[in-house]
Amino acid sequence: CKRQISRYTCPACNAPYCSLTCFKSDAHAECSESFYRKEIETDIKVAPDKSSEERRNMMHLLKRFEEEAASGPDNLDGEEETDDLAQKLEDSADTEALWSVLSPAQRETFLKAMRDPSSEFTQELLASDALHKGFRKPWWESPSLGMNQESADASAYGRMPRMMTVQLSITSSTSRQSLLYNIVALCLVYVYVTRRLSLSPLSSLDGPDRAVARDLFSTVATFITERRSTLVFRSVDDMVTHMWATISAAPTHAFFSALLSDAARLLQPHVVSVLADGSASCPPSQAPFTMPLLVISDVAALFAGIRHVSHKLAFYAAYVSAQSAALVSAVSEETRLSAAKHAAAAVPQ
Predict the structure, then answer these.
(1) What gap in Å lies between CA 5 and CA 19, rounded to an integer?
(2) How big is the CA angle at 296 (ends 232 and 197), to the nearest 5 degrees?
(3) Nearest residue to 185 via CA among 282, 131, 112, 263
(4) Orientation angle between helical segments 325-346 and 253-267, nearest 10 degrees
């Protein structure tokens, strides 16, 4: 562009350039497009372990893309070509096969959409009903958790996890170290994995999806999954600092605000009062520590068979059950305030 000092060199043609904008300019389009094409093709070839959910998402995106392309003026073969490609996509088992059925022109259009996520065409692809068809909203957002059981759309939400048996004898409220912030961290990682995969509950997964969920959880929650980890968080800010550096996705204040808000909700004890006849004021599913216990139970089911993880989670379940509702509520409020602080930081000044 000759506007700034050229600090970089194109690896393909050795042309000097100063920035990403310069690299993607029209004058360098032929070379840059081939670079992006090779990068995506390489990613498809070297990542055969993509989860079935990711493959479904790719298939829906490609199908939606083809539908949009087929409706344009350059479509000479009409519906026959669209139907043929749709059938090929349905029959394809992985992303490499999906990519191979596209024509060069279709690949170019798809690559352009991938390079510009903010474009109108890409946003239409991402908003496709087909893309979100297999997704499940988190179980803790379901209206069925409240008193009105008939108001929930059961198909839109994950089912409530099965509650584990809590062995109160393995811990006590007088434990020397407070693990409540570790439980906040556990809830935050649980929210992160659930929302990233758009599948709920995690214990319902099997095959590749289960393996992906385990790997993702293990990467972030090392204080749970590493056998010899003795990491204990001292505050919500301490936990957030650690997680900010651990989560692989580029974190933002808005991102952490959303995670912390959900974590605070999952940790908040339910208020239970005993009526004159001795019965509780709410069903067993709303006992004081049911929400964090359901989180721990779901993670324990996900890691069933891994003894050291199961032992840690059993201890966490007993620990939170032995705490006072007031103390847990105070930590939940601290988490909520941290979420609000990150939300404020995300607002442009």
Answers:
(1) 10
(2) 100
(3) 263
(4) 160
Burial-class residue 299 by CB neighbours within 10 Å (0-12, 13-18, 19+).
buried
Return d(Cα 202, Cα 53) in angstroms, integer: 13
- The model's pLDDT over 241-287, given as tens digits with 9 standing for 90+, comes to 999 999 866 788 999 999 999 999 999 998 654 445 554 444 444 47
Write the pLDDT tens digit of every residue in 77-128.
444 444 555 555 555 545 666 777 777 887 787 777 777 767 777 777 666 6
Taking the alpha carbons at both ends of the chain, their separation in whole angstroms is: 32
What global pTM score does this model have? 0.64
DSSP letters along 19-55, please? SHHHHTSGGGHHHHHHHHHHHHHHHHHH-TT--HHHH
Question: Would you tell me how many other CB atoms lie within 10 Å of the CB of residue 18?
Answer: 15
- With 0-12 CB in 10 A as exposed, 13-18 as middle and 19+ as buried, what is 227? exposed
3-class secondary structure, 310: helix
Residues 162/297, Cβ–Cβ less than 8 Å: yes
